[in-house]
């Protein structure tokens, strides 16, 4: 089968063979606009609806293999208008596809239930808030056998290059997720990045040198075989 390596992740010597799938989610809550000073009771504030939904939703680490995050929120028109619309975007990651599906169902139910609780009567008409939501698969999970040939090559090369290695379970996504989804078995090799996705992101020269010697040894062993 086609195989390869993805150069990503933190400490040099890391061999990541497990990584989660990621589903992005987006929900828009629709309320009812009204003048905030004259007739606020005739409106439904969509920002308030969104806030209630967020209060009920799980956040952060759900279990040892699943996380959920709220990434962005925006809505409203002006300070003197009861907000008619608010949109929240986030993500769910999990190594367990059943848990991923269950978590999507859980937050979908919360979106719908919360929206139904916000009602206002205007001119004999009962208006209820509503939620529109969608999920999009960003990438699938990785599950590579730690004894497979490509992982063994990484381990053998690390030993010969005198690089201390570890077999790791990752929490992030990389090119490897996409490649693996297309039947290219791709472990992730750590290159020594620190404080990733922050302004302080850095890498030590000694870790770069260590990684290079490791990768050179991988090429050498692979071509000799």
Fold blueprint:
Elements: E1 6-7, E2 14-19, E3 21-30, H1 46-56, E4 60-63, E5 66-75, E6 85-94, H2 97-117, E7 119-122, E8 125-128, E9 130-139, E10 142-143, H3 149-160, E11 166-169, H4 175-181, E12 188-189, E13 193-194, E14 202-203, H5 205-224
Parallel strand pairs: 1-12, 2-11
Antiparallel strand pairs: 2-10, 2-12, 3-6, 3-9, 4-5, 5-6, 7-8, 13-14
Helix pairs in contact: 1-2, 3-5
Explain how this protein is built.
The structure is a single chain. The protein has 225 residues and is α+β, with helices and mostly antiparallel strands. It is 32% helix and 32% strand. The strands form 4 sheets. Strands 1, 2, 10, 11 and 12 form a 5-stranded mixed sheet that branches. A 5-stranded antiparallel sheet has the order 4-5-6-3-9. The model has no long low-confidence stretch (mean pLDDT 94).
Question: Which properties best describe this structure?
Answer:
single chain; alpha+beta; five-stranded mixed β-sheet; five-stranded antiparallel β-sheet; 5 helices; 14 strands
In short:
With 225 residues, this protein is of the alpha+beta class.
Note the gap between the termini.
Answer: 16 Å
Low-confidence stretches: none
Helix content: 25-40%
Count helical runs. 5
Largest sheet: 5 strands, mixed
């Amino acid at each position: 089968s086609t195989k390869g390596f993805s150069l990503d992740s933190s400490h040099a010597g890391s061999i990541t063979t497990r990584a989660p799938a990621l589903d992005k989610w987006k929900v828009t809550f629709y309320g009812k606009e009204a003048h905030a000073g004259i007739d606020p009771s005739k409106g439904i504030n969509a920002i308030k609806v969104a806030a209630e939904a967020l209060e009920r939703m799980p956040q952060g680490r759900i279990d040892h293999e699943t996380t959920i995050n709220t990434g962005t929120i925006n809505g409203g028109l002006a300070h003197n208008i009861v907000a008619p619309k608010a949109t929240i975007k986030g993500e769910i990651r999990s190594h367990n596809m059943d848990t991923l599906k269950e978590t999507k169902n859980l937050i979908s139910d919360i979106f719908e239930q919360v929206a139904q609780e916000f009602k206002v009567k205007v001119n004999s008409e009962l208006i209820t808030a509503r939620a529109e939501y969608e999920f999009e698969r960003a990438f699938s999970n990785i599950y590579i056998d730690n004894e497979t040939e490509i992982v063994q090559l990484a381990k053998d090369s690390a030993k010969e290059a005198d690089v201390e290695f570890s077999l790791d379970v990752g929490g992030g996504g990389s090119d490897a997720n996409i490649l693996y989804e297309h039947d290219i078995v791709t472990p992730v090799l750590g290159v020594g990045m620190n404080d990733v996705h922050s302004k302080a992101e850095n890498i030590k020269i000694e870790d770069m040198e260590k990684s290079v010697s490791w990768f050179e040894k991988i090429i050498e062993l692979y071509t000799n075989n």
